[in-house]
Amino acid sequence: MPNPTAAMLVIGNEILSGRTRDANMHHLAGEFTKRGIDLAEVRIVSDESAAIVEALTALKDRYDIVVTSGGIGPTHDDITADCVAEAMGVSIDVRDDARAILAEHYERTGKELNDARLRMARIPDGATLIENPVSAAPGFSIGNVHVMAGVPQVFQAMVASVLPTLTGGAPLLSQSIRVERGEGDIAGPLRELAEEFPDLSFGSYPFHENGIYGAHVVVRGSDGARVDAAVTQLAETFAE
Amino acid sequence: MPNPTAAMLVIGNEILSGRTRDANMHHLAGEFTKRGIDLAEVRIVSDESAAIVEALTALKDRYDIVVTSGGIGPTHDDITADCVAEAMGVSIDVRDDARAILAEHYERTGKELNDARLRMARIPDGATLIENPVSAAPGFSIGNVHVMAGVPQVFQAMVASVLPTLTGGAPLLSQSIRVERGEGDIAGPLRELAEEFPDLSFGSYPFHENGIYGAHVVVRGSDGARVDAAVTQLAETFAE
């Protein structure tokens, strides 16, 4: 059975403007790879309703799993929950269980549950809440879409909550070797190896460091013995 | 006149697998912002022909400028140039000017211009070459699509070559202040300010550090005096 496929939608003005560098995508990619879920596509869009709804609609129909990050806070530009409701064709309103979580959190921390914060209890109809152990305001899952916060610490906690509920595939194993030759000298033998091991994937990531040209060749597959065999053969080829 | 819009397409198996963390997107976002070009969307796809062609087709019709990174090296999984030709509806073959650049480079460095390396001289019909001062193999521009290498050092050099040829808008100016209050207390005043300054954009990026909750509030716009005015008003609001 092939591995489940996944996509990520980042609502990320701060990434598109160059203000911050992505951390959530990198985290999710690593977690999915360990569990045998193939992250096949990532889209980063700004906090405009039409862009979010269109991307969500495309991704949720195409992939088994969709994770979003960002846009579920209390400010006026936090519109992800409403966009998810629209894309899933369901209504959205403040929900009692989410409101109760917020009320308890803000009472404990001595802050007011004002109108802005109450926006974070808006949950699409039929969604399941995702716990937020850091700052209380929950994420949610609806259908195959999992909606998480953009703050990396919260995002990572939400990923940890949701991962055990997802059916993974065989974990993807990888091994890599460093070859100090130009990629153009690696390409021919690598193509032959890829033909000999059609069940594995071969990637070549060139580097130039201190005047040395080379590439990290990465072999990936779910069968450890096959990955071993291919890497051994690779090492022999380039030891000559 | 509104600023030109742009999209980036990353052909990035190594990013989707979690092996490496993006650097090119972050670089391009910063360069575009300085020049008043709005990076509106980024997509990251794997090195599968159908995925690349589909994303390119969607992005080139929607945005003024499209930049791709990755997939133009000599190995069997480097298929970007062929995908661009398909998406643009033109033919592709080894081109004499590109071959000459490679021939000179490999003669100088004492390496063979073998079949794998010659693949890097495959250029879609009608494209203009983008110089690669690092490792010779050129990128190219065709229509509104600019095709660049994925190695960060080469990508940055190619961006530097192409940027002067692009028409930018008014550079986006930004100022930010750090507010040590919960985002839920910032949201109300921020919404009012956003209504008072409809020509500016306001972003709020929450942080939790050493037990302190707060947000960096960023004000962006092309009129420096307006940005100043809004930030001054913000500072006064939160100084109370």
TrEMBL record, chains A, B:
What InterPro entries does its record include? CinA, FLAD1_M, MoaB/Mog-like_dom_sf, MoaB/Mog_dom
MoaB/Mog domain: residues covered = 7-170
Offer one Pfam family short name for this entry. Answer: MoCF_biosynth
SUPFAM superfamilies the UniProt entry points to = Molybdenum cofactor biosynthesis proteins (SSF53218)
User: What is this protein's record name?
Assistant: Molybdenum cofactor synthesis domain-containing protein
Q: Which organism is it from?
A: Roseivivax halotolerans
Lineage of source species: Bacteria, Pseudomonadati, Pseudomonadota, Alphaproteobacteria, Rhodobacterales
